[in-house]
Amino acid sequence: MQIKTFNDFLQAANAQPEPQRLLFVLAQAGLPDDPSDEERLAYEQGEGGVLSPVLCVDKLPEELPRFAQLLEESTQTGVHWDLAFASALSGRAGIAPTSDEALQPLQMMAEQVKAGLITRFLVINRDGDLLQIS
Prior knowledge:
By secondary structure, the chain is α+β, with helices and mostly antiparallel strands. It has one domain (about 5-130). About 35% of the residues lie in helices and about 25% in strands. A five-stranded antiparallel β-sheet has the order 2-1-3-4-5. The chain is elongated, with a radius of gyration of 16 Å.
């Protein structure tokens, strides 16, 4: 199944043979510390910059029936974010992973986002649109 929308992501998670836990790293896009003129110009043109993870979230698919709910819940935290990086963690023996089991994978995701290693994640903007970032 090709994933083109957030709903496709939910459907794919629900279609897996084992229950899934959805993992999200919410990040702010910004300039690096002490940016050069070139970095500043590129960022102003929508290129470059750095990603700073600000919030990690894990949910069962049934806990998040639509993207707007993730947006609403994250807004309640008061933490601003620009992009959500999404993945899923598979359960075993018919049992979905717990939030405790999701902690280490979420920490690893956050480190990968911080390092710019994002090609293995779905990237979603605040409008719920999936983005292609290289």
